[in-house]
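Backbone-to-sequence.
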């Protein structure tokens, strides 16, 4: 791509940043790496129009709030359908920019349309776009996440790609081997599965959860987790 510039890897030293927060492993690892340079200021999560579930991972609001509490940060949220998602996201970025946030951190690894959209909305909001995981080897990032001591539970599995029996399992060596045996990317970058992070080195305390029902919608099997 002519004129392409690699996205910013880390926030400027000490600069306040927001984390675009899905609740899963990739946004968590990006947050962890960004926190080594910048100053965490907020988490930003998008929910469906009714606010009942997060848009990306289908998580209850109280789970995202528990993560924010464990990280000692405020949770900012937006509610939107896909048709007004960008407008609402831009509105939330502008609010945080007005509160002094200088950088937005995202957990994407190598999907170009995601990077392009993130750089577009950040540019429109006057915020620097930071992608700490960008173009790093997927498997190496997964190993780094686990090596740091984070714990994540599989909460969604793509229909036709990954057997829903993986729901509720810890993302560990055995689960990763099973995911790969089913022909899926271990890191799930193609959307094969999603996770909820429940513990790690930056968490003040583990998040206790209890499993509920499994349901199929929008091409994914979801496990309904609640605070335990």
């Amino acid at each position: 791509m002519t004129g392409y510039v690699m996205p910013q890897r880390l926030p400027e030293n000490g600069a306040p940043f927001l984390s675009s927060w899905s609740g899963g492993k990739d946004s968590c690892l990006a947050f962890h790496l960004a926190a080594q340079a910048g100053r965490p200021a907020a988490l930003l999560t998008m929910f469906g129009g009714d606010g009942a579930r997060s848009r990306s991972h289908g998580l209850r609001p109280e789970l995202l709030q528990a993560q924010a509490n464990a990280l000692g940060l405020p949770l900012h949220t937006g509610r939107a359908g896909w048709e007004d998602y960008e407008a609402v996201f831009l509105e939330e970025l502008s609010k945080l920019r007005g509160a002094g946030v200088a950088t937005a951190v995202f957990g994407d690894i190598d999907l170009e349309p995601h990077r392009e959209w993130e750089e577009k909305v950040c540019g429109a909001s006057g915020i620097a776009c930071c992608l700490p995981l960008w173009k790093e080897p997927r498997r190496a990032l997964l190993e780094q996440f686990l090596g740091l001591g984070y714990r994540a539970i599989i909460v969604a599995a793509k229909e036709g790609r990954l057997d829903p029996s993986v729901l509720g399992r810890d993302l560990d060596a055995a689960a990763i081997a099973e995911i790969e045996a089913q022909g899926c990317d271990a890191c799930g970058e193609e959307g094969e599965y999603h996770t909820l992070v429940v513990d790690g080195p930056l968490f003040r305390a583990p998040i206790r959860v209890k499993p509920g029902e499994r349901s199929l919608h929008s091409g994914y099997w979801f496990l309904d987790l609640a605070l335990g």
